[in-house]
Amino acid sequence: MVLKSVVIDTSFGKLALSFTAQGLSAISFVDTESEVSEPLPPAARQVQQQLEEFFAGSRTSFDIVIDFSAMPQFQADVLKLVRSIPYGKTRSYEQIAIHLGNAKAARAVGQANGNNPIPIVIPCHRVIGKGGKLTGYAYGLDVKKKLLRIENPAAYRPQIELFSA
Q1: Which is the catalytic residue, given 15, 85, 124, 150?
Q2: Is the full-model pTM beyond 0.85?
């Protein structure tokens, strides 16, 4: 049960945050017309500060309490594992499925990851296709690429930039 929803302004755009008594339960990108919530409750200020530090490249992990209770168990297991992917690194859907004990569950992992209600903090952008291919992202591949570039700029430069440096 959502107790509080707020809209924050970040250098990456406006984000809606939802909280339950157990912690952060959702983050979503919202349009520029959305009104920023004032004043922000302390939990929202903490999330906003940590997100800004991440976007600036000075934060590599989040110290935010997450509420997984509304998720099906498989999705919560997948997202807890996704949350453990190190900053600047990626893992494939297949690698996650294997780690969960079922190599054939890559599509189910993809679906659970694609329905991540807490992007960025649970870094679903770090999950890629087999062979390193960038695959779908709920907010578009451009957003996924931007998030990956924050973490590892050299690895995600468009090929044309390799010749202009």
Answers
A1: 124
A2: yes
Residue 39 is given by DSSP the state S
- Burial classification of residue 164, based on how many CB atoms lie within 10 Å of its CB (0-12 exposed, 13-18 middle, 19 or more buried): exposed
What confidence tens digit (pLDDT) does each residue in 113-125 have? 999 999 999 999 9
* Whether the Cβ atoms of residue 15 and residue 30 lie closer than 8 Å to each other: yes
Catalytic residue status for 124? yes
CA 79, distance to chain mean position in Å, is 10
Residue ranges of the alpha helices (H) in the chain? 42-55, 73-83, 93-99, 106-114, 141-151, 159-164
In this structure, are residues 152 and 57 in contact, taking their beta carbons and an 8 Å threshold? no
Determine the length of the chain: 165
